[in-house]
Amino acid sequence: MLAAAAEGCRLCKVITQSLGFGHLESSESLEAVWYLSPLQDAESHHDSSSTCPWFRLTIDAMDEDDEIIDTENDLTDLPERCQDVDEKGHVRLPKSGADIRDPDIPSSPPAWAFTLIPATDPAVADIQYEPPSSPQDPRMWSLAKQWLEKCRSGHAKCSESRNPTFYPTRLVEIIDHSTLRVLDCNNRRPSGPYVAFSHCWGRAETLKLLEENKARLETSIDIDELPRSYKEGIEVAMRFGFRYIWIDSLCIIQDSLDDWRAEAATMKDVYNSASLTIAASAASENSEASFRRRDPAGIQHIRVNPTWNGIPKVQYVLASMDLYQDEIAHSPLRRRSWVIQEYYLSSRTLSLTRSQIWWECRETMYSESWPNGVPERLRHTVRDDQTREELHREGLQGVGGSGYGASYYHRLWYNLVEKYMSCRLTVFSDKMIAMAGLASYFQPNLGDDEYVAGHWRSQLPQSLCWDTFPYLSRPKVYRPSQYRAPSWSWASVEGDVTFQHNTHDADGSNTVHVCEVLEFKSVKAGPSPTGDLRGGYLQLRGRLFPVKIREQFLTVPDEGGDYGYIKGSAEDENRVTDGDDDTTGASLDEFTSDNWPVVSSLDTSAVDVLDNAVLDTTRRVARLAHEWDGRLFCLPLIEWVYLEKPRLRGIILGHTRGEPPSRYQRVGFFYCEGSITTSHFEGGEVEEFFVI
């Protein structure tokens, strides 16, 4: 295939230049098996108005020597030595995201999907643009400026939520091709619109605005002082005719916590009011440029005249259905936590990808491959774009004003949190503030609902039903040593999170809360109600049940105090009745890099939570689960019936030796399905307690 691509096969170029093929190239000893799925009608797929066939090419290239990590280990059957444990038996916790290097493992065999679009389709028929070989070619930027002008003149949604009179506290003013300066907008108002820059910091040395150099940078900056990605972004801004650009490292005083908090709280307005956001999608750090290899043959469409039965014998364009995912959704930039709110809050985004430029606004999408607009049938394959469209569909009109209820926005919030938690942070303490702009954006749509450590008050306690899992591509899940959120908040962990209460069957009217929130408190570190935290707690009323975990199932004590599976459940080998439909599941929140469960907790024995809930000075201790000397309890939160089967969701709380008797910390998640298992967690004494 590489040889065919080198000889000019454009289909092979699309495949060999993709991220998925990169995984194949790096494998030394693999036996590839190729599959071509049968042609199917799009009518049965994404676009009911289309009869364009599509097919998927899959290359299964699993190395024969690859080992599958077992994620169902008995907590009593752990290895004698764990690579993440120090000589004192404590699990080592990373101090920053720079200490983490996730394995570059694809979650599934590489696959490429293509569709046939009739050459008469408006998105194809009138294409006059021929992609140039150089990103410096004026034709490319003339096309991008056409997109901007079309949006400005014809897209009402892209302008209605912007505040044209808003300016950030500071901007970088572009004096000429070689000189810039930091402009304090409070002292001198800019004379035109500005653009925002979205980028990855990485490990490269970057010029930063500091207290000591503030006066100098406000006077003059030589462009050669800036890293490559900054230069590229500034050049793009100049090609559009913009004189002002917002770059975080130069517009926020990096060694002033007060300035950082104040500016971070304005991110919603910075990106929402920018005339354009320039996204350095392909640069994994500031020392890199996004445009590194550009092959016009890989951008242009392939025209074919298929003779397959069942489709009209006309000319088609063979279009990749994975191009957006490959160039933007899976790009280095989109793995960065901060970019989630930068992307979703921007009304217009120009993405600089490995091979071409992409345009996204609130009404349409363009790329050099699709200069007249990405066809609707392809836009339906872009899940991130669909979420963005939903978020911007009606703008900020308050509950009921958009025609959607609060539950609609709550669902969008959970979707965005799950996307956010799949991304990476360099500075762990940024977890709350990097989502603060989106939280502020949501607030008008939720009426008087209060934001509580990443949750919405009306959604407690059911939104506490989130779960983590050590995926092969990112096995380590942990709570950082530095406090940033209560244990019951998703923001307390670093790793992927899934909300388990947000399924269609758990959102019905028959959902019953079996736990009551009596009081909540969050101690904010700054002025923003959605910003970073110093502490907090929930006071709950509910039933606590002592448990242990074995092979990801719950065990409970019998009358003699011995722990075993719930009698009659699917896990009980001695069950008399058919209990196949009755089961439990349990998982701890934290795992080591080699996939072993961990329990961590803060030492709060000297803290009076009611008097002072500040917890950011306490020490976190993490141990392998089998060496932890505390006790585990299940706290049921919600129950409902679906398909005539009772279902239960809740969280696992840990009580550490030496802590007050009514003070717990969240350590995991559990569920029950079936009447036998759910009935075990009914009845019992109702207690009042704190979860910190």
From TrEMBL:
Domain of life of the native organism: Eukaryota
Pfam family, one: HET
Disordered as annotated region, ranges: 564-588
Domain Heterokaryon incompatibility: 194-342
Composition skew (Basic and acidic residues), residue ranges: 569-578
Record-given protein name: HET-domain-containing protein
